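Now for today's protein.

===
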Amino acid sequence: MKPLRLLLADDHTVVRQGLRKVLEERPDWEVVAEAGDGREAIRLAEQHKPDVAVIDAAMPLLNGVEATRQITKRAPDTRILILSMYDDEAYVAQALKAGATGYLLKDSADVNLLQAVSDVSQGKSFFSPSIARLVLDDFRRPRGEGQIDRYESLSDREREIFQLIADGKVNKEIAGTLGISLSTVETHRAHIMEKLNVHSAAEIVLYAVRRGIVR
C-alpha cells in the first residue's frame, strides 16, 4: 500500500517540526516536503504532487488562501487542509472558495490533526467544531441581493501583488519577486486600489489585517 504523501507549509520552523512529528506517528504517512512561505508551497506542491497539503493561513509572500487557490490549479489532485488561528466566517468562506477541503484551528490541532488529514485525504470535508457551526449558520442565513466582496473581484495576479504590498514590499521588490516589469506592477497596484477603494499602501495593510491575510 502506498504511503499517504504530505506537504507542510508554515513560516515557523518549530510549528512544522511539531506537525511533522505528529503526522509521522502514522507509519503509512510520509511528509515529502516542507515550505516556509506561500510561494514555496506552490512550487513544492507542483513538484511533489502530495496527496494532502497542510497549509498555514497566514504566511509571508503569499497567504495560505491564495496558495490554496494556485495549488488547486497546478496540482488538482492535491487536497488541502487550511491550518489557521482565525475563526472568522469570511476567512473560512475564502478558504473554501479557493479549494480547501478542510479548515482546522491551530488551538485544536493537537487533538484533531490526524482525523482532519485522514478525512481530507479521503475526499471528505473536515472543520473544527466551532468552524462547522459557523459554516452551518452561514448556510442557514438568508442572502441579500447585490452583496459584493471587493477582494473576490481581484485577479490571481492582483491578489499576489496585494499580498506583497501588505507584506511591506515596494514596487521594485514586487517586480523582482514575480519576474514582471515595474510598469506592470504599477498598473496592477492602481487596479487593486480602485477595486478595493483604498488610497495608500497603509490602507492596503489595514485591509489585509482586517481580513486575516497578514498578521
Notes: The mean pLDDT is 88. The longest strand covers residues 29-35. The radius of gyration is 17 Å.
